[in-house]
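Exercise 7. Given the encoded structure of a 177-residue chain, write a plausible sequence.
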């Protein structure tokens, strides 16, 4: 049976009514044409990164994601990326603590979730040794956030590369940020 519930999303959608609601993305659709320097890709509207990614992986998306179209934000893009990489039964290694929807997306896709610690004592810094210690030959994907969610700890690029190399040495890492 597929995991289909997120306590966090239920709360965020039904109970979070503060004046400054930090349970939502907090960024409304902002037309990038209003920025002084124009990016190469419009992130709002029909040409969103998630839409482009889904279009390039459409057969896999229909089969594994449980999605039928539409747009979303970063959480949707994370879901689509996982759906393109993870098969039911694959092992996914996710930091702890973590943004709950990363764990829910992996479970929804039928992955077996393992965790590695980002500790308060270490300022929630990414520890490549913790990743290495949690990797198994079955690990298909390692998921980290930067800025770390929920602590907002910044991981320098050099530490991200060391963490990636930890997985690559086992032959299981997928490049990405």
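Solution.
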């Amino acid at each position: 049976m597929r995991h289909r519930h997120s306590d966090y999303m239920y709360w965020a959608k039904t109970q979070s009514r503060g004046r400054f609601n930090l349970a939502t993305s907090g960024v409304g659709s902002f037309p990038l044409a209003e920025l002084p320097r124009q990016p190469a890709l419009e992130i709002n509207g029909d040409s969103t990164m998630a839409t482009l990614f889904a279009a390039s992986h459409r057969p896999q998306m229909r089969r594994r994601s449980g999605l039928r179209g539409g747009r979303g934000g970063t959480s949707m893009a994370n879901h689509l990326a996982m759906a393109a990489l993870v098969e039911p039964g694959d092992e996914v290694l996710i930091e702890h603590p973590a943004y709950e929807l990363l764990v829910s997306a992996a479970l929804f896709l039928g992955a077996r979730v393992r965790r590695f610690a980002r500790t308060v004592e270490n300022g929630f810094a990414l520890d490549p040794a913790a990743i290495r210690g949690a990797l198994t030959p079955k690990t298909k994907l390692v998921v980290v956030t930067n800025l770390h969610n929920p602590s907002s700890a910044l991981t320098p690029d050099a530490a991200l590369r060391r963490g990636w190399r930890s997985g690559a040495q086992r032959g299981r890492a997928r490049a990405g940020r």
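Remark. Residues 41-50, 61-66, 172-177 have pLDDT under 50 and may be disordered. Students should compare their own answers with the one above.
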